[in-house]
Structure formats: C-alpha cells, structure tokens
Amino acid sequence: MNTPFAGLWAVLLVGLPLLLAVGAYVAGRRIRPILVWIVPLVMAGMVTGLIHGLIDQGPLHYEIGGWTPPLGITWHIDGLATAMLAVTVLVMGAVCAYAPSYFAGSIKTASAEKTKLFWPLTYLLWAALNALFLSADVFNLYVTLELLTLGSVVLIVLAGTTDSVAAALRYLVLGLMASLFYLMGVALLYASYGTLDMATLGGQLQQDPLTWTAASLMIVGLLIKTALFPMHFWLPPAHAGAPAPVSALLSALVVKASFYLVLRLWFDLFRPVAPAPAAQFLGALGACAVLWGAIQALRADRLKTLIAYSTVAQLGYLFLLFPLSSAPAVAKTAWLGVILFALSHALAKAAMFLAAGRIQQLAHEDRLDRLTGIGQCAPLALSATALAGVSLIGLPPTGGFAGKWMLLVAGVESGQWWWALVVVMGGLLTAGYLFRFWAIAIAASEHPSQRAPVNWRMELPPFMLGVAAVLIVFLATHVAQLLEIGAAFPIGGSGEVAP
Amino acid sequence: MTLFTLYAIGGVGLFAMGLFSFVAVAHLLRKILALNVMGAGVFMVLIAIAHPERAATQATGVDPVPHALVLTGIVVAVSATALALALTCRYHAETGRATLPEDGPGNEGSGR
Amino acid sequence: MNSARSWKTLRIRPATVVIGCLTVGLTVLLGWIVCEIPERPLPLAAALEDIADEQRLIEKSGVGNPVTAVLLNFRAYDTLLELGVLVLAVLAVQAASAGIVGRPAGSGWRHNRLLAATVGIVVPVSIVVAGDLLWMGADHPGGAFQAGAVLSGAGIMLILTDRLGRSSFTGWQYRLAAVVGVAVFIIVGLGVMAVDGRFLQYPAGLAKTLILAIETAAVASVAAIFVILFDAVAGPMGRGNQDASLDVRGDRP
Fold it and tell me: Which residues on chain B are in Cβ contact (under 8 Å) with A139?
C-alpha cells in the first residue's frame, strides 16, 4: 500500500519545519545558517524522494497513527499534492536565501527582534503549507488553514509600519470569519454523514439542501481566503505592506493553498452534487477578478501595489477552471492548464516580489513615478521581473503560456468562447501594466544613478525563480504526467476514480 | 422540539448574530467579540451533534469526536483572539483609531 | 444620534438593513437544515458492531476517557497542529508588542493582605488541581488542556498581584516551556515510527505512558503560553494597559 520511506518523507516534510521553527524560537542565532542554506536543500531532497515514490507506486494513502478512517486522519499523497509541495520548496528556498540580506539592508525593520521572529514564523508557515497540501481530512484542513492564516498575519506585521498593521488586522478578521464559515460547513457535513475523511465523504454525498449549504459555506470561506472578487479588497494592502520576502510567500503560496482546497473540495467531493450554475458563477467571479485586478494594476501608483493587484487578477484565471471543467471533453485539459498556470504563477510572482524588494531598497522608494531609470542600478533584478512578467503575460515559451494555452483550447473546444475571450483580454491588460512598469524602469533618468554592486544574495534568487517560471514549460509533459497520478478524473489516473 | 434541535438552533442563532455584528459594526474590538460569538455558535452546533440521539457511534454515551473538535477549536479561537487583540492595541497605539480606515471616522483626538 | 459617536453603535443604513435581511435568511436556512438532518447509517457505527467492539477500541487506545482517546490517539495529529497554533500565538504577540517603552506600571496590589492570603491558597491549590486533572484525564473528564488552563489561571493571578512580571517572560525558560509541548509531541511521533510503525502510532502497551508524557509537556506549554498571552495584552506592561482610551463603549476616553 505504501512504501515506508515515502511515508517518512511526508512526515518529515511537516515535522522537520515544525521542529526547526521551535528550535529557531528557542536557540535563534545559532541555527540560523542551517535554516538559510541547508534545510531547503534537505526538504527539496525529500520532495524528490516523494515524487520517486509516487511514480513507482502510485498514490499513497498514509494513515496517521495507524487508524483507518473514519476514525483517524489520513494523508492522500498524489500528483497534485506533490506538485504543490515542490513549488513550495522552490519558493521557500529562494526566500530563505534572500531574506537575511533583505533584513540586513532594510531601513524600516531595523530591529533585530523582528528578524529573530522571521525564521520561526517562516518555518511554521512552511509546516502549515506542507500539512495542508498533504491532508485529506476536512477538520484537519481547518486547523492547517488557521495555522496558515495566523502565520501570514504575523509575518505581515514584521514590516513595522502602521499600514502593515492595518492590513494585517483586516486580513486577520476576514480570515477568521472565513475560517468560521468553513468550520460551520464541516460541522454540517459531520452531522449528516458522520465522517470527516474526504475519501469516505466523496462516496457518500447526496444532493440535498444540507449538502449544498455545507458546500457553499466551506467554499465561500475559502473564496474569501483566496481573495476572489468581490472579497479581494484585503489582498492589495496586505501583500503590498508586508516585507518583500513575506509578500512573495503570501502571493505565491498562501493564496494558492486556499485555492488548492477549493480544487480538492470541488473535484473530490462536491462536483457530482453541485448545481450547474454554481460553476458558471465561480467562473464569472473569476472573470471579474481578471478584469478588475488588471484595471486597478494599471492605475496603481506603487510598485508593490501593482504586483499585488496583479495577483488578484491572476487568481481570477484559476477560477475559470470550474465552468470549463463542466464540459467533459475538455475537463482534463482545463484542469491541467489551470494547475500548470498556478504553479508558474507561484514562481513568477515570488520572483517579482523579491526583485521589487531589491528595487525598493535601492531606490529607498516604492512609488512608480520615482523609480525612473532604476533598471540601470539593478539590471539583474529587472531581468528577473522581465522573465517573471513574460510568464505572467502568457507569452511563449513560458509556463504561463502553457497554462493559458490549455485554457484557451478548453474554452474554444467546448464552445464556451467567452472564457477564452477573458483569457485573451486578461493577457493584454497584464502586458499593459507590466510594460508600464518596465518603461519607467528602463527610461533614462535625469539623475544618473550609480550602478550599485550586484547583491547576489538578493538578486540571484528572484532571477532563478524567473528562469524556473520559464523553464517549466519544457517540463510541461512531465508535470502533466505527475499530476495525473491519483487525479480525480477517470481518464489517465492510476489511483482514485471519480465518484 | 428535542434537545438536539434546541442546541442546534441556538448555535445557528449565535452564528448569525455574530455574523451580523461582524459585518455591521465598525469598532474592531466589537468585531473580535462578534467573531468569538460566531465561534461559540459553531461549537454549539458541534456539541449538539454529539447528542446521543444523533450519534449512532456510541450506543451508551455521546459521540466523543465533536467534543475533541470543539476542544481544538476553542484553543485555536483563543490564539486567534489573542493575536487580534494584540494587533488592535498596537493599531490603536499607533493611530489613535479603533476602526479600520474604510470603516468609519475612528477615535480621532482621544488617542495618546 | 451624535455622528461623532455613531460609528461605535449601530447605524441603521440601507446596507445594514440588507445585511440584516441576509443574516435572517441565513438563520432560517440553517435552522431548517439542522432540524431536517436525515437519518443515515454512520460509517463508524457500521464498523463497530456492538458495544463490546467499542470497549475494545477504547482499550486499545490506552486511555479510558473517549474524548482523550480521540484527542491524543485517534486524532493526535490535530492536537499536534493545535499546539503549533499556540506557539504561533506567542510569536504573534511578541511581534505585535514591539515598541513598548516605559517602566512597568505595576498594579499596586502586591502588598494587599487579603490578596496575599488568597494567592497563598489559590495558587498551590490550582497546581494540585491541575495535576489531578492531568492524571484523571486519562479515564475521567479532564486532560491536558483543562489542566493547563487551570494552571495558567494561577499564573494570571500572580501577574495581577505583581508577583510575576514582564521580565520573567523574556528568558529562554519561558520560550522553552512554550515550545516543549509541540517538540515532545513530534519527537514521540517520530520516535514511534522507528518501532516499525506510522507517525504517531503508539506501540501496544506503551500508549498510556506516551500519552501521559505528551500531556505533561502540553500542560507546561498551554500554561506558559496562556500566561504570556495574557501578559502581553492585559498585563501591567501589556498593550491594553498602555492605552486607556481604547474603550469599547466610547462614552468616555
């Protein structure tokens, strides 16, 4: 049923960051070098081991404590979970390499106290993300979601500014309300079906008002956390006000985690019982997010606000999956496309935020109209934004292109051409606001600034992430094969069959 | 009206009252209290589910799983409330306001 | 209504009415749903045929109290993550408390004789009660969280009477106490994997001992963390007392 080592890697992927987080809290400075360099490599090795186990043996069902469901909690380790774990390792590795230089050179976070807190918090966030991606028990997912939300809020506050405190408060209270919606849905599901395990639930759900209400409550809670239009207003201040490495983590990973949960709940549980208009409604909200986020990004006056609104827009694309997957012929294409898009967006957005942090430090300034000519000072950082931006716009040959292409194909072939139109328009608008930034950055400035020496620790990680966002297209077929292991579709999956 | 129904409807009522207060009132402390009331509502629904007449798991007693869920939920709610209160106090100390900027005029003039 | 104060109370605006109607609608919907939960055969009941089966399962878990069995054996992983959330709360109040300056004000109750006598009785009794709850939690209602809460109540009493101060919480001892619960839980969980099992799969016979060890560490953690949380927000040096104008009623500064 499952190899011992694969289970060990999964356990360590959650347990090791937790132990290191508490160790960092107690011992602090002594273990910091390990945290910055060695541990991300170790975690990458474990994820690779997990992928090998997955390819050899198919999806793994790991019963924690040895108790079979519905008594105990299980982990379902399939292709989708592993892909998310892999992207998490990549982004976390870059952030860990970047963060010490950022905090050393930052003007606002002068206090060493704050940097002391960054490492335990980041590793707790890593543990929460891994625990969320692995879990297949709806209440356990609630606990991991809370860990994730609370961790993100505290990381935002590390910026030290009043705006960051306000943004963190807004995110916190909305996130807590969303978690309570989710928990009420869980309570109703347990009342009706008597189990919290997703596999058991999947086989048993029936179409009745209680299931619809529970599903709606859970999904609405997760939509608030994913900042889907119209509940997106908390995201731009939060992601723009946080320190740059934290913004990268939030935009790349944390909002993807709640989207991943929507994906899981929809395809593993609720799709057979969901009424058809629900999928169209989600798609409509996604389309609004794409357009509205892009328009606000065009109007943004600060670099990080622009990137944050870009996140709002790009998250909208992810929700086009739901209407597109309701047509069986293109469901798999849409599913693969959206996940590929999510993975490359995580890499690209993290690259953009890390590079923006470097630019902000160099210019001591965030406002776009003061950043004229910044490209001369930090060419490597600007190249990182260029690589990332090409993937965000969706130009070939990048991961973003691969994802959008599959969405376009799905939209056209299923006759839902309006979603394809949204994808195209979104791409054009993305190009609009990104070119706006690049034009400012490469313009000749009146005050010729000195080219600063390349800070490799701050400029190489975003560059590598940008390269990864581009290269992922060449690995697209392998990624697709990985994703199909254990997928919830009857076609191509070697694991669970859709209910 | 059975005991289960009574508790469940009570829980639903608390949830709705908390939700209304959260959305309609601007003061941050009252929002945090509203969240706690919502949480209490969800916990009441969970406890109601553990009632013997509902739970077929324990022929003699109550279903222990919702009790464990509520214990976990209470601890998580306490942590979240502590964080929210600490942040609210910090926000008030820095700005003199007790509402988020989009919510209302705030407490100008009576800050430190 | 005085507009300067209206933001602290409920304004009857169109938006409020709409929200009110939606909330009433949600209440009615949820209320109807909980009354109409259909009777279905529950999966666990199908697995356990009779009461004897249940007894055997509880015995296998190592403890007699079913709630403790669920919390610390069947769904121990949830409890582990929950202890992690508590650690996160401590980190959070530290991050939010940055920038507090000044001498600790002190509550001034340290020398009050009535309080001194009360503290002298309540604190030792709380410690004993906490220990009792911890031990009895295995077979009767009680357990780690209840014991930790009682112990933290004693700690809060000490803070309020100036016997325990902010300077006590900055040392490594309190940080260690805060994290020992999670750390012991994970180490035990990983350790039992070496005995040819899964994560958190206690070997037969050792279950009760391991659960007690984890619960003891959890009591220390919960007590320390609640005390730190209280002190950060409401203790003499806490944020709440630094700023008396944060008043919920808004009638006076």
Answer: 69, 72
CB of A329 within 8 Å of a chain B CB? The answer is no
CA atoms of A170 and B26, how far apart (whole Å): 12
- What does the domain layout of chain A look like in residue ranges? 295-499
Determine the Cα–Cα distance for residues A16 and A43; give it in Å rounded to an integer. 9
Ramachandran area for residue B54 (φ above 0: left; ψ -120 to 50: alpha; else beta): alpha
**Contacts with A206 (C-beta within 8 Å, 6 or more apart), sequence order:** A273
Closest residue to A200, CB basis, from C30, C43, C82 = C43
Contact A166 B91 (CB under 8 A): yes
Residue of A nearest to B91 (CA): A165
The subunits that touch chain B, with at least 3 C-beta pairs less than 8 Å apart, are A, C
Which residues face A135 on adjacent strands?
Answer: A75
Secondary structure class of A84 (helix, strand, coil): helix
pLDDT at res. A479: 86
Asked whether the beta carbons of C232 and C93 are under 8 A apart, the reply is yes
3-state class of A68 per DSSP? coil
Would you list the domain boundaries of chain C? 6-35, 64-242
Q: How far does A461 lie from chain C, in Å, by closest CA?
A: 27
B25-36 pLDDT tens trace: 889 999 999 999
Name A137's bridge partners. Answer: A197
> Under an 8 A CB cutoff, do B111 and C245 touch?
yes
Put simply, whether B70 touches C (Cβ < 8 Å) is no
Rounded to a whole number of angstroms, the distance from the CA of C113 to the nearest CA of chain B is: 32
Looking at domain B3-95, its CATH architecture is Orthogonal Bundle (1.10)
Residue A234, amino acid: W
> Which residue has 């109209």 as its token pair?
A369
Q: How many helices (H) and strands (E) does chain C have?
A: 10, 0
CA–CA dist A263, A196 (Å, integer):
17
Judge: A22–C43 Cβ closer than 8 Å, yes or no. no
Helix axes A303-318, A328-363, angle to 10 degrees: 170
Burial annotation A371-396 (CB, 10 A radius, 16+ → b, else e): bbbbbbbbebbbbbbbbbbbbbbbbe
Residues constituting chain B: 112
Q: What is the DSSP string of C48-73?
A: --SHHHHHHHHHHHT-S-HHHHIIII
Other C-beta atoms closer than 10 Å to the C-beta of A368 total: 18
Across the interface, do B95 and A162 touch by the CB < 8 Å criterion?
A: yes
Please give the ipTM for the structure prediction.
0.92
pLDDT digits (tens, 9 = 90+) for A121-165: 999 999 999 999 999 999 999 999 999 999 999 999 988 888 999
Residues 6+ apart with CB under 8 A from A431: A393
The predicted model scores a pTM of 0.92
Q: Are A321 and A334 in contact (CB under 8 A)?
A: yes
Please say whether the beta carbons of A391 and A401 come within 8 A: yes
> What percent of chain C has pLDDT above 70?
75
Report the C-alpha gap between A441 and A364 in whole angstroms.
15
Q: Alpha-carbon distance A492 to C111, whole Å?
A: 76
Q: Which amino acid is at A19?
A: L
Task: State both tokens at C172.
Answer: 């490594």
Interface of C with A in 24-53 (CB under 8 A): 29-30, 32-34, 36-38, 40, 42-45, 47
Q: In chain A, which residues have their Cβ closer than 8 Å to the Cβ of B42?
A: 180, 183-184, 187
Q: Who contacts C17 (Cβ-Cβ below 8 Å, separation ≥6)?
A: none
Shortest Cα distance, chain A CAs vs residue C161, angstroms: 28
- Collapse the DSSP code of A75 into the 3-class scheme (helix H, G, I; strand E, B; otherwise coil) and give the result: strand
State both tokens at A249: 């983590």
Tokens standing for A450? 């000195």
* Pick from C36, C78, C178: CB nearest A143: C78
What is the domain partition of chain B in residue ranges?
3-95
Q: Which of A35, A45, A46 is nearest to A12 (CA)?
A: A46
